[in-house]
Amino acid sequence: xxxxxxxxxxxxxxxxxxxxxxxxxxxxxxxxxxxxxxxxxxxxxxxxxxxxxxxxxxxxxxxxxxxxxxxxxxxxxxxxxxxxxxxxx
Length: 89
Known about the structure:
By secondary structure, the protein is of the alpha+beta class.
């Protein structure tokens, strides 16, 4: 795995274990990942790769709901959406 710093990838990083419970970096790392997931879902919807669920009379598209440390991905029931979600994750 590598990380983008100012648009350029770093050297490969080998991940060996997760964070310990109570680690002060955990909330920050969670926010970074949650924001990235939201951005990837929006891009997939914009490009037509993921078809969101339409809500209400106006058909407002909803593809992801995030609150605190919970994330819910919502879309039309299709195999194409499953493949798109797998590619995103």
